[in-house]
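This part of the workshop introduces the protein records we will be handling. An example says more than a description, so a record of this kind follows:
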Amino acid sequence: MKYFGNTRWYTIALVTLLYASSSWLLLNLASETELTGNVNFLYWLAVTGSTVGYGDLSPSSTAGKLVVAFYVIPFGLSIFAMVVGRIAAWVSNFWQKGLLGMKPLHVHNHILIIGWNEQRTMLLLDLLLMEKEDLPDKPDIVLCVKANIENPMPGQIEFVHVESFNRDEDMDRACVADAATILIDNPQDDVTLTTALYCTQRNPNAHQVAYFNDDSLVKLLQQHCPKVECTPSVAVEMLAKSAFDPGSSMLHHDLLSVDAGQAQFSVAMPEGMNTVTVEKLFVNLKRYYDAIFIGYAPKSEYQKLVVNPALTETISSGDKVFYIADKRISQFDWKRLGE
């Protein structure tokens, strides 16, 4: 089967043509005229060579039976095995390429995760898959890595293996220019920094988030790419906070994890809507959706988050509203919220 799988298609086609021609010639010499008719011959050769053998057509002469027994069936089985082996090899190769991340993708408006951090990346993928179920468009999730691994979630996410996060040829296979969201998380902060710079150049309109272990690199990246949302490690801060306010770490975990109860979400106020005061939004979110308003980010500067604003402040079209709820609210009645 290994040798059959390596056989070229043109070789199989040539052998099949020679096999069919010689079979027709031998049957014609044996006076099997019923089998050598154009349509009858093609039909009979296919069912006989593949050993299906319906029996509605069969040789009647002794010479014809000998030709079928010692030539048509043995050689037909060999050719059939070549075809099956070649198809199996192609399917296996195609599957292996997908599993190893070697085939190009054809996706757009997807979530692209760049980097591999083992269990942290697996947790990130689990959370994204859960969040995805609440979204109407359900975007594809693509994991792009340099690590020597296979697709950790075949059938659930797309997977691309690259040699460099800064080479067009590699990153085009991950459709970096067409991604709606790009999440960058590498063990090395310098790789995260250069990758963020590259992705900003290739896809300036994508929502881009970069995770850093070293906070000092956050300001450096934001000087060159102010639209990139930088997420520093907050483990130490959470530890210190819990020392003086017991339960703080559990609260933060609850708000960040979509499977742990109440979680934090965001939504942009649609264009063309009238401004609404924080007071009305706070009261009506709780009244109509049992959700809690916690802050907003102005349209002009999403990085400038305003938490616990005064009740007299106003929210305008395009501003991003942050709230806490049991699950993501798929549709808001903004007119009702502004009453």
Residues 62-100 form the longest helix (39 residues). DSSP finds twelve helices and twelve strands in the chain. The mean pLDDT is 83.
